[in-house]
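Good morning N.,

You mentioned wanting to compare the apo and holo forms, so I went ahead and generated the holo version with NAP. This is what I fed in:
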Amino acid sequence: MDLLVLGGTEFVGRAVVEEALGRGWRVTVFHRGRHPAPPGVRVLTGDRATGDLGALARGEWDAVVDTWSGPPRAVADAAAVLGRRVGRYAYISSRSVYAYPVPAPLDETAPVVEGGDGDYAAVKRGGELAALEAYGDAALLVRAGLVLGPWENVGRLPWWLRRIAEGGDVLAPGPRELELQYIDVRDLAAWTLDAVAARRSGPYNLVSEPGHATMGALLDACAHVTGSGARLRWADPEVITEAGIEGWTDLPVWLPPGELYESVHRGDVGKALAAGLRCRPVTETVRDTWDWLRSLPGPPPLRPDRPAPGLARDKEAAVLARL
Ligand SMILES: NC(=O)c1ccc[n+]([C@@H]2O[C@H](COP(=O)([O-])OP(=O)(O)OC[C@H]3O[C@@H](n4cnc5c(N)ncnc54)[C@H](OP(=O)(O)O)[C@@H]3O)[C@@H](O)[C@H]2O)c1
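and this is what came out, ligand included:
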């Protein structure tokens, strides 16, 4: 297979590249050149924000994987330049496209937001529509949920690992058995390439089954791999929210039970499971992310367009003192 990855040098795109190379596929990446491309790929440079797509004017690929999360125009522009020179178009979308509040169970038939220039949900839906308009049945929409694993540039699992590595008493948002839904970036990559090869099309929610891990299993795994002797101090959700601490942003991954929790951590993934989705255990995701963090010469990468998640130590200490 000849694969073109639009992006391919950061988190999700890099995992797709590595998975494809591991399968013996030939891989081309198209990017600005701000991050080093993984070894073993052919590199094309340009800038989707300014419409500089000249490097894509020649060449043919069996499929393209597009990781774009900016204005949808860039997806339409890439599709217009590539045309029939690519066989399939896989757009890495997001479960954020579903209109809130979402129905339960949240499957691919749920209503979606309007696509266009706007917030994250609108641009991701806009990207989907642009891919569908250009490629129709040859467009695959990978509606990823929370993505974790090595090379994460959002800072969620890296924050937990680094906080727990510092040791001492750590505020652990409960309940311990709170079920989580996420996908290891490498499982996302493997499923996406399988789906491309199997000529799948349309939308697929892509996360683990609810309960694949729990908050307790995630934080225990962090304590285990870091070996810091940190003591997890479990707190009820009400204690945390009453202290003005926000789930997801202050305490990454975690959400207090409620409507938002239901939409993020209890979605339906039956369609992807039936199409071969396999999810590795949380212990492996945590271990490999920790190994990657320790291999870095400095702090982990962080996307410049999102605030870094994580709880200030004084806020944490104030809650711990009350437990
Ligand atoms: N993280 C999550 O939990 C989560 C959840 C659901 C969905 N998603 C989706 O997953 C995707 C994340 O993919 P990712 O981690 O690979 O992407 P990313 O972190 O957004 O990386 C951007 C990639 O695109 C390239 N790029 C950026 N601006 C460009 C431009 N103007 N022209 C050409 N290339 C440009 C970058 O290359 P250079 O910088 O090297 O030039 C880099 O390879 C997004 O679509 C996101 O919506 C993420």
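The chain has a mean pLDDT of 97.

Happy to go through it together on a call whenever suits you.

Best,
F.
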